[in-house]
Amino acid sequence: MRGGYDGAVLSQKGLPCPNIFTGAHNFHSIYEYLPVPSLEAASAVVVDVIRITAERAAR
């Protein structure tokens, strides 16, 4: 996805900004929300990816 979020502008200027997946609901409405457990789960996945990448780089 290269549009629709603030990171798209920064990515165009050379600073890669990936979308962090979440379990949001009611996108682009006044009722859009993100449950905290969904954000926590997404954060845990990101931490695992970083850990695995660091372990592989250390080999």
TrEMBL record:
EC number, as in UniProt: 3.4.11.4
Signal peptide per UniProt: none
Needed cofactors: Zn(2+)
Molecular function GO terms recorded: tripeptide aminopeptidase activity
Keywords: Aminopeptidase, Hydrolase, Protease
Domain of life: Bacteria
Record's keyword annotation contains rRNA-binding: no
PANTHER family: PEPTIDASE T (PTHR42994:SF1)
Protein name: Tripeptide aminopeptidase
Source organism: Photobacterium aphoticum
